[in-house]
Specification:
The complex is a heterodimer of chains A (299) and B (262). With 299 residues, chain A is an all-alpha fold. Chain A folds into two domains: 50 residues, no CATH class; 230 residues, MetI-like (MetI-like fold, Orthogonal Bundle). Chain A has 14 helices and no strands. In chain A, helix 5 runs parallel beside helix 9 and helix 6 crosses helix 9. Chain A is globular and about 70 Å long. The two termini of chain A are 13 Å apart. With 262 residues, chain B is mainly α. The chains are: A mainly alpha (299), B mainly alpha (262). Chains A and B meet through helix 1, helix 3, helix 5, helix 6 and helix 7 of A and helix 1, helix 3, helix 4, helix 5 and helix 6 of B. Chain B: It is a multi-pass membrane protein.
Chain lengths: 299, 262
C-alpha cells in the first residue's frame, strides 16, 4: 500500500519538477558504487574463486575439497552449536516474551526486560567471552560458589566452558534477548478476541495454544529461529577469544586460513567462505519468507 | 490464570538469573586483582595502559568517521529514493540486508583478496589506505541499522511536500538536504549513529584481519595474556554498550511519540 502511494506521489512530482529520468539514477550512483565495491564485488570474487583452480580455470575440485573429514567436522560442530544455541535461545526467549506480554506482570518489568534485551543482544564478541570465563571458568564465581558452598565440583562432571555445551551456553546470552526483541511484537499481535472465541467454543488453554496461537505464531517463531541460527553461525569473536584457535568451528577455520593459508590452497578457502554464505543465505531467505507469511496476521 | 502468573514469574526469575549472574561474576572477578581484598586495581591497570588508550582512541575516531560518512551516504540516498526512485526501494532494502546475511569474516576475506597491494585499488598497500578500507568495512556492517533507522524517520515526514515547499522558496539542493531533510530525520540519524558506535567499538574480525590497532583486537590480546584486566574490560565494554543502546532506545521512544504521517 505504502509503495503504491509512494509511486503515485513521486511520479506526479516528477512531472511537476520536470527533470529527466536519467538524473534520477545519478542520485543513487554513490550508494550503488559503495555497495558494489564493498559488498557485492568482494562476495562475488570469493564465490567465483570457489569454482576456479589456482590457474583460473573452472573446476569443482574446491567444492569437492570441502568433503574432507576435518572440514566436514568443523561444519558439523558449527551447525550443532548454531542449532543448539538458536533452539535454546528461541525456547527461553519465547517464554520470557510470553511472560512479559501475557503473564500479567507489572509493566515496569516489561520495559526493563525490553531495554536489557536491546543491550544484551548487542553485548557479544570478546567481552562476552570474558564475562563467561569470569562466571563459569575454572576460577569463575559460580564455579567457586558451587565448590565452596555446595561441595559440587563443576569441572569434575566433565563440564568445560571451552566445549560445545559451554559455547552454546555463552551464545545464548545474545540469542535469548534477540528472540525476545523479535517475538514480542508477534505475541502482542495475538488478539484477545481469538482467545475469547476459542474459550466460548469450549477450548481449554492447551487447545487454544496448540490449535490457535502456536499455528499463528509458527512462522514468526521458525523465522526468528533461523535468524538466530545464522547469527550464531557467522559469529567468531566470542568463540575465538574463549577457545583460541583450538576449537574448530567454520569461522575460526576460515580465520586461520585467511591469516596463514592453513589449507594450503587459497581457492579451498573461497569454497569454505562459499559454504558459509550458502548456509546463512538460505536461513535468511527462509526467515524473510516466513516473515512475509507472519505479517498476514499482524494488522 | 493463577498458574499463568506463577509461570511468568518463574520465567522472569530464570531469565534474570541467567542474565545478571555473569555480570555480577564479571564485576566480582575484576575486583580480585589484589590478593585477599577487593580493589579497583584492575581498572587502574587498564586505564593507565597506553595500549588501551591508543586502541580506544583509534576505535572512537573510526566510529566517528564511520558515522559521518555513513550518514552522508545513507541520508541523501534514502531521501532521493523516496523522492524520485521509489522503484529502487526494494533493491535498497535487499542490499542493506546483505551485511546481515554475509558473515563479516567472509566480507573482509573478499576485501583482502580484492584490494591487496598488487590489485587495481591497493587499499591495503598503505596504512592510511587500510584505515580507509576499515572505515568502509564498518560502514558496510552498520548499513542495515543505519538505513533502517533513517528510512523509518523519513517515513514520518512528507519528503515531497517539504522539497516542493523549499524549492518554491528558491532553495538549492544543498539547502534542501542539509536544512530541511537532515533536521527532520535527526532522530533516525542519531539512532543509527549510536548503534554504529556500539558495533564499531566492539568489532573484532575486521580490524584484526586488516591488522589495525583497534579496541576489539586489543581486548582479544589482553584476554589471552592477562587474568584480571579482561573482566574489567568486559564491564567497561558492557557500560559502553548500555550507554549507546540506552540512548538509542530513548530516541526511538521519542520517535514513536510523534504522530506518524503517511
Amino acid at each position: 500500500m505504502q509503495g503504491i502511494v509512494g509511486t503515485m506521489t513521486a511520479s506526479s512530482s516528477t512531472t511537476l519538477l520536470n527533470r529527466k529520468r536519467l538524473t534520477d539514477w545519478v542520485g543513487v550512483a554513490p550508494f550503488t558504487l559503495f555497495a558494489v565495491m564493498f559488498l557485492i564485488a568482494p562476495t562475488l570474487y570469493l564465490v567465483t574463486g570457489a569454482f576456479m583452480n589456482a590457474e583460473g580455470q573452472p573446476t569443482l575440485e574446491n567444492i569437492a575439497g570441502l568433503f574432507t573429514p576435518k572440514i566436514l567436522a568443523s561444519y558439523s560442530i558449527s551447525l550443532k552449536i548454531s542449532l543448539a544455541s538458536a533452539f535454546g535461545g528461541a525456547l527461553v526467549g519465547f517464554f520470557l516474551a510470553w511472560a512479559v506480554v501475557l503473564g500479567g506482570v507489572p509493566s515496569w518489568i516489561r520495559s526493563a526486560i525490553m531495554t536489557f534485551s536491546g543491550v544484551a543482544s548487542n553485548f557479544a564478541g570478546v567481552p562476552l567471552a570474558f564475562a563467561f570465563l569470569a562466571t563459569l571458568g575454572r576460577t569463575g564465581l559460580v564455579t567457586i560458589i558451587l565448590r565452596d558452598w555446595f561441595g559440587f565440583n563443576l569441572y569434575a562432571t566433565g563440564f568445560n566452558l571451552l566445549s560445545f555445551f559451554g559455547l552454546t551456553l555463552t551464545y545464548m546470552y545474545f540469542q535469548i534477548p534477540l528472540m525476545v526483541l523479535i517475538i514480542t511484537p508477534a505475541l502482542d499481535g495475538l488478539k484477545k478476541e481469538w482467545r475469547e472465541a476459542a474459550e466460548m467454543l469450549g477450548a481449554s488453554t492447551f487447545q487454544y495454544w496448540t490449535r490457535v496461537a502456536l499455528p499463528i505464531l509458527f512462522p514468526s517463531i521458525l523465522g526468528t529461529f533461523l535468524l538466530l541460527f545464522a547469527n550464531a553461525f557467522g559469529a567468531i569473536a566470542t568463540a575465538y577469544s574463549l577457545t583460541g584457535s583450538t576449537f574448530n568451528i567454520v569461522p575460526i577455520q576460515l580465520y586461520a586460513q585467511i591469516r596463514g593459508d592453513v589449507l594450503h590452497n587459497p581457492n579451498l578457502g573461497y569454497a569454505l567462505a562459499l559454504g558459509m554464505i550458502v548456509i546463512t543465505g538460505l536461513s535468511n531467505l527462509i526467515y524473510i519468507w516466513m516473515r512475509i507469511r507472519a505479517e498476514r496476521w499482524q494488522k | 490464570m493463577k498458574t499463568q502468573k506463577i509461570g511468568a514469574w518463574i520465567a522472569i526469575l530464570f531469565g534474570a538469573t541467567y542474565f545478571i549472574l555473569p555480570l555480577i561474576a564479571t564485576f566480582e572477578f575484576s575486583l580480585r586483582m589484589r590478593r585477599g581484598e577487593y580493589s579497583f586495581d584492575a581498572y587502574r591497570s587498564v586505564f593507565t595502559d597506553s595500549q588501551f588508550q591508543e586502541s580506544f582512541t583509534y576505535s572512537i575516531i573510526m566510529a566517528v568517521l564511520t558515522i559521518v560518512f555513513g550518514v552522508l551516504l545513507i541520508v541523501p540516498t534514502a531521501y532521493w529514493v523516496r523522492l524520485r526512485l521509489p522503484q529502487f526501494r526494494p533493491v535498497m532494502e535487499f542490499v542493506t540486508l546483505l551485511p546481515l546475511v554475509i558473515p563479516a569474516i567472509v566480507i573482509v576475506f573478499g576485501y583482502l583478496r580484492l584490494y591487496n597491494s598488487s590489485s587495481w585499488i591497493p587499499f591495503t598497500g598503505s596504512t592510511r589506505g587500510t584505515d580507509l578500507l576499515l572505515m568502509f568495512s564498518f560502514m558496510t556492517l552498520s548499513l542495515p541499522y543505519m538505513y533502517r533507522s533513517v528510512d523509518t524517520a523519513m517515513r514520518t515526514i512528507d519528503v515531497n511536500t517539504l522539497t516542493e515547499a523549499a524549492q518554491s522558496l528558491g532553495a538549492p539542493w544543498r539547502t534542501i538536504l542539509f536544512r530541511c531533510i537532515f533536521p527532520n530525520v535527526m532522530s533516525g540519524v542519531l539512532s543509527g549513529a549510536f548503534i554504529t558506535f556500539a558495533i564499531v567499538i566492539g568489532e573484532f574480525t575486521m580490524p584484526s584481519l586488516l591488522n589495525r590497532p583497534a579496541f576489539g583486537p586489543y581486548l582479544q590480546l589482553i584476554g589471552a595474556n592477562r587474568a584480571y584486566e579482561p573482566p574489567a574490560l568486559a564491564i567497561i565494554a558492557f557500560a559502553i554498550t548500555w550507554f549507546s543502546i540506552g540512548i538509542l532506545q530513548f530516541l526511538s521512544r521519542f520517535n514513536k511519540a510523534r504522530p506518524a504521517k503517511p
